[in-house]
Amino acid sequence: MRLMDRAETAARLPWPALIEALAAIFRDGCAAPLRHRHPLPQNEAKEGSLLLMPAWQAHRYTGVKIVHVTPANANTPGLQAVNSVYLLSHGENGQPLALLDGSTVTDRRTAAASVLAAGYLARPDSERLLLLGSGKVAHALAEAYSTRFPLKEIRVWSRRADSARRLADRLRDEGLPAAVADSASPAGFDIVSAATLATEPLLFGADLSPGTHVDLVGAFRPDMRESDGALVASCSLFPDTRAGGLAEAGDIVQAIGEGAIDENHIVADLFDLCRGTHPGRTSKEEKTLFKSVGWAGEDLAAAVLAYETP
């Protein structure tokens, strides 16, 4: 069995190839039940989570990601809030083939899925990106978006100003046009991407400019959210998967519970976009919203790409 550490996993998942691998699996499909989530008691936080995400393609590959989400780790230097591994096996005989760094798989496939969706939903000439969050996923989002759009400005906001400054400095060192944002307001930005563990809204519909594309990556539980109901109601809504969005996406679940929208507000999902059954953005002024909660098929596609890359 091949063991891939963080560096090797990342090297085998370049952005263009990874985005295309995700597009292919959304077009072709695979078996991927809704993830199993189990609460984990925490000494210094309300609750952690154990997530199990299986997926398989008959006779080809099976895979499962095991994820520990421990928010209290954010308060301890050197510890990550999310830790995971990915096991890829032979789909016919069950032989283990590779064990990959699951956090790297997650970060990169999450960012790649956002950019895949943005290719359908954001304006092609988008130049200004606002990032909410300063962790590894936010870093990956900045890299991935810069490969797809002609970005001239990337602004980083975080509740921890020092973290936002460190990420902006790192992105600048990589040659990206990054700086710290004064606030979380989305006004004037072409693309707004949020990757936080927020449980209260950070983005509000009243502040959203016409033509903006919003990419909500956090809020993977129904009790979490990054936007208010007015923002969701003002946008054309596209989750990564319709079933996952309605079951797990706090931004959607809570907006429905408040009466801001109903299930019919969902225009299409990423399957529809990749299969060409919905065109995505239909006008320059349209406000669009992509809400991801993560689909196990994305992890499988990434793991297969990493394993098959020479």
TrEMBL record:
Gene3D superfamilies, per the entry: NAD(P)-binding Rossmann-like Domain (3.40.50.720), ornithine cyclodeaminase, domain 1 (3.30.1780.10)
Record field: transmembrane: none
Cellular component GO terms held in the UniProt record: cytoplasm
GO MF annotation: an example: oxidoreductase activity
InterPro entries hit by this protein: NAD(P)-bd_dom_sf, ODC_Mu_crystall, ODC_N
Highest rank taxon of the organism: Bacteria
Coiled coil: none
Single Gene Ontology BP annotation: carboxylic acid metabolic process
Family in the record: Belongs to the ornithine cyclodeaminase/mu-crystallin family.
Protein name as it appears in the record: Ornithine cyclodeaminase
Organism the protein comes from: Teichococcus deserti
Source taxonomy: Bacteria, Pseudomonadati, Pseudomonadota, Alphaproteobacteria, Acetobacterales
